[in-house]
Amino acid sequence: MPTRAVVTEELANLFRVFSHPHRIQIIEELRSGEHDVNELEEVLGISHSRVSQQLSSLRAHQLVKVRKEGRHVYYSLSQPDLAGWILEGLEFIVQRLEQRHELRSAVEEVRHLWQGEENNDEK
Q: Which residue of 36, 45, 61, 122 shows the fewest CB atoms closer than 10 Å?
């Protein structure tokens, strides 16, 4: 298979990982540091098994890593810049939503929230 085809296939696989809203939310939650499944369950408002399922997909694509401490399992981003990349991707959404003010303001709110978490991490 030509090099270009291999690279584009891998990139397409990465984009498929981002195709689920809960996985994007998990990535953004892990921006601030490691969390266990219970913490993610509470923040996302979904069941323990759904969080575990989404984390499993992220682990399969090596986007999150695991740290075990006794019986507790903590997850973190294997490449923390990934969360920033998603944040930058909001620019494409804003441009698409020029005509839909309510969604544009929602994007701005999320950007502010995510950037705020990033700024808090630097302090």
A: 122
Q: How many CB atoms lie within 10 A of CB 47?
A: 10
Q: Which residues of the chain have pLDDT under 70?
A: 1, 98-102, 117-123
Q: Does domain 3-122 have CATH number 1.10.10.10?
A: yes
Angle (CA) 27-120-41 rounded to 5° is 35
At 73, give phi and psi (nearest 5°): -120, 125
The predicted structure's pLDDT at residue 102: 66
> What pLDDT was estimated at residue 123?
41
The residue written with tokens 């030509």 in the block is: 2
CA-wise closest residue to 28 among 72, 89, 90, 77: 77
> What's the token pair of residue 76?
């973190």
CA pair distance 75, 73, nearest whole angstrom? 7
Classify 66 as helix, strand or coil: strand
Q: pTM to 2 decimals?
A: 0.80
